[in-house]
Write a structure and sequence with these properties.
The radius of gyration is 16 Å and the shape is globular. The strands form 2 sheets. It has a 7-stranded parallel β-sheet with strand order 1-10-9-6-2-3-5, sandwiched between helices. The relative contact order is 0.18. The protein has 218 residues and is of the alpha/beta class. The protein has helices at residues 8-30, 43-50, 78-85, 103-110, 136-139, 167-170, 183-193, 199-205, and strands at residues 2-4, 33-37, 60-64, 66-68, 95-96, 115-118, 148-151, 162-165, 176-181, 211-216. Helix 1 crosses helix 2 (43-50). The protein starts with a strand and ends with a strand. It is built from 8 helices and 10 strands. It has one domain: 3-Layer(aba) Sandwich (Rossmann fold), CATH 3.40.50. Its EC number is 3.1.1.31.
Length: 218
């Protein structure tokens, strides 16, 4: 399940190529495509490469796996990362669906997503499904009807209030790509695969959606 790459640059190249293929297939077979993007350090180099994809970006909808409750231009904003690293050149023609209170019906209409990009924290969280959160149980229900989850402040780094896709929403995908780097996160992944009750385990243990785990040492 674990794909190993020598450096983050090689991982980013592989991830961008794979996501491009997913989007191209969606455009070819359904006339539109959808991407659930993510924040953090890992996906930036992926977006730098993905924005060069020769696809009809005007027919692509991009949303986020989670967002912090900050102003759009704040350094902690995942939407800002997309504006700076993905929505550049032709890729700026893509339609962005922010995770607001009004996004739930639009997300349901968009699913299943052609590709979902995720990172993982050293506590095993994905999106903002964070251990210790009072909203975690609700968000981890694979049969839940809600696509969006409000996560109160006090958990995560930084410990800001957030909005997150639920596990049920993440699993409404045709492909999931989990991007990780470093020895510490590989150990967390190994613990999850061995049965540790971490949010990421729910992705690894399910058989509904194919998951590619891409790892680089640094």
């Amino acid at each position: 399940m674990l794909e190993t790459y020598p450096k983050v640059a090689a991982l980013a190249e592989a991830a961008a190529h794979a996501v491009e293929a997913c989007l191209a297939d969606g455009l070819k077979t359904r006339g539109r495509a959808s991407l659930v993007a993510t924040g953090g350090r890992m996906p930036g180099p992926v977006y730098d490469r993905l924005r060069e994809a020769r696809i009809d970006w005007a027919r692509v909808v991009v949303t986020l796996s989670d967002e912090r409750s900050v102003e759009p231009d704040a350094p902690e904003s995942n939407a800002r990362l997309l504006r700076e690293r993905l929505f550049v050149g032709e890729a700026a023609k893509a339609h962005f669906l922010p995770l607001t209170d009004y996004a739930e019906p639009a997300l349901k209409a968009l699913a299943p997503f052609d590709a979902v990009l995720l990172g993982m924290g050293e506590d095993g969280h994905v999106a903002s499904l964070i251990p210790g959160s009072p909203a975690l149980a609700q968000g981890m229900d694979p049969a839940g009807e809600r696509m969006l989850l409000d996560v109160p402040a006090g958990v995560g780094s930084p410990p800001l209030a957030r909005t997150s896709l639920t596990l049920a929403a993440l699993l409404q995908a045709r492909a999931i790509f989990l991007l990780i780097s470093g020895a510490a996160k590989r150990e967390v992944l190994a613990r999850a695969e061995a049965g540790a009750e971490l949010p990421v385990r729910a992705l690894l243990a399910q058989a509904r959606v194919p998951v590619r785990v891409l790892w680089a040492p640094q």
